[in-house]
Design a protein that fits this description.
Elements: E1 11-12, E2 18-19, E3 24-28, E4 33-37, E5 39-40, E6 43-44, E7 78-79, H1 97-104, H2 107-117, H3 119-135, H4 142-149, H5 153-156, H6 166-172, H7 178-194, H8 197-212, H9 217-223, H10 227-231, H11 236-250, H12 255-271, H13 274-289, H14 294-307, H15 313-325, H16 333-341, H17 343-350, H18 354-368, H19 373-393, H20 396-414, H21 420-436
Antiparallel strand pairs: 1-6, 2-3, 3-4, 5-7
Helix pairs in contact: 2-3, 3-6, 4-7, 6-7, 8-11, 9-12, 11-12, 11-13, 12-13, 12-14, 13-14, 13-15, 14-15, 14-16, 16-19, 17-18, 17-19, 18-20, 19-20, 19-21
């Protein structure tokens, strides 16, 4: 009868291996002890375990050799990966399925089982069984398992069969514990690096599509980390699919999924062609900057500031900076705080354009009048930072003109602020101004 995974009828119980001699393999089951020449064969009805995996034998054969009945079966067997004829002896077979699950949490034991089963049986039986245990939540050391699976391709037959490991790792990307998901993601990235291009396109891209459309939030969050891992290795058709999957996640109903999608834009900005980023991903960045969730907007602003340094200056001035500067109207104090902290960095990009520089100055002045004291307090020191940028990038005359027109009057207004902390900050900043502009009376 053919082997069926998960059958509730007659199922394989694969227990710990014990080699009594070079020709006999001992297995102890809940019902009988079976010794088969060189093969692992044995049936048992065990409803609690769909596939009861190999149980490692720990102590030795003195009691095994004393009058143990022999039963021979030649059908439905699993061949062992036993390349040498040396006698190997292990001892006592454990028969409790719960103990088996506990033992599988030992990574050395898991590797040992895979080694003894051989690549084919590991692919057909061990990996599906591990997947079953993950789904059934019968394993507790999931982080260790997630890390090991990233190096498990040697036990399934090499990189050619690495896609076999996507199934258990998919389940691990959906668990609630964050460090387990990240371990699974790193393992998936490792496997993607060793897979051939044809395998990436036949297995990994559909795998990403499956996670993208999955009902579980954790899986949709996890998949964002995989897009750029394979983007540069697949053909343009699949690259376009990856961009579409990312855009799909950008419109997800859950803020956590949108956050992960937004965070992925930084990596995309480094590898995606400029025209594709402009047509497909820049609209997503703008969308994130107006997201209803505060955390998504905060992330979008930080990302926009980060990627503004990666593109052509003209594109950044024309497209990215307007998205950033629009955050001045954001209802979140934290968003406006991030904007004021980065005004000087934005000024470095826009300083070559007088109109843009003046627009940035106006944004800065507006933030110095913010209703939140936290924003106004940060703006005091930012005024000096912007002054430094102007004098470093413009002529002395041009910089002085802008400083006296925008920054010094603003600083004087802050000296009259209703908050004592702001007032106390102003004299120290004025002293710094005097060092940069010794000929100007403040």
């Amino acid at each position: 009868m053919p082997f069926q995974y998960g059958s509730t009828e007659l199922q394989f119980c694969i227990f710990n291996l014990t080699f009594v001699t070079s020709t006999y393999l001992l297995i102890q089951s809940p019902r009988s002890l079976i010794i088969v020449p060189g093969k692992l064969v044995f049936y048992s009805k065990v409803r609690s375990c769909p596939i009861c995996l190999l149980r490692k034998v720990d102590s030795m054969a003195e009691r095994i050799e004393q009058g143990t009945p022999k039963t021979y079966r030649g059908d439905n067997h699993l061949e062992l990966n036993d390349d040498n004829n040396c006698d190997r002896s292990f001892i006592e077979a454990t028969v409790n399925c719960d103990r088996l699950v506990n033992r599988l949490e030992s990574m050395p034991f898991l590797r040992d089982v895979a080694l003894k089963l051989g690549a084919e049986n590991t692919r057909k039986h061990l990996v599906p069984y591990l997947t079953h245990l993950i789904i059934a939540e019968q394993l507790s050391e999931l982080k260790d398992l997630a890390e090991v699976l990233g190096e498990f391709e040697i036990y399934v037959g090499g990189p050619k069969y690495a896609h076999i490991l996507l199934l258990p790792l998919e389940e691990l990307t959906g668990v609630k514990v964050g460090n387990v998901r990240m371990a699974a993601i790193k393992s998936l990235q490792t496997l993607a690096d060793i897979m051939e291009v044809i395998d990436l396109e036949n297995y990994f891209i559909p795998f990403i599509a499956s996670l993208t459309m999955n009902d579980r939030c954790a899986k949709r969050c996890s998949v964002s980390h995989l897009f750029t891992t394979v983007y540069m290795r697949v053909s343009p058709k699949y690259q376009s699919d990856l961009i579409d999957y990312h855009c799909f996640l950008s419109l997800d109903s859950l803020p956590s999924v949108r956050q992960n999608a937004a965070n992925n834009l930084v990596d995309f900005s480094e590898i995606v062609h400029m025209s594709i980023f402009d047509s497909k991903l820049t609209p997503r960045l703008e969308q994130f900057s107006f997201d209803q969730n505060e955390h998504v907007r905060i992330l979008a602003l930080s990302i926009a500031i980060t990627i503004s340094k990666k593109f052509d200056v003209s594109y950044t001035k024309q497209t990215i900076l307007p998205i950033v500067l629009n955050s001045i109207n954001d209802p979140s104090c934290e968003v406006r705080s991030i904007l004021i902290k980065n005004i000087a960095k934005l000024l470095v990009i826009g300083v070559s354009c007088l109109k843009l520089t003046e627009n940035i100055m106006k944004v800065l002045i507006s933030l110095t009048k913010d209703q939140q004291i936290e924003v106004r307090l940060q703006s005091v020191s930012v005024l000096y930072d912007c002054t430094v940028v102007l004098y470093e990038n413009l002529t002395y005359l041009e910089a002085t003109k802008l400083v006296t027109k925008f920054l010094i009057p603003t600083l004087c207004n802050l000296s009259q602020d209703t908050d004592v902390k702001c007032k106390l900050e102003v004299p120290a900043v004025l002293a710094k101004f005097g060092k940069i502009m010794p000929n100007i009376v403040i």
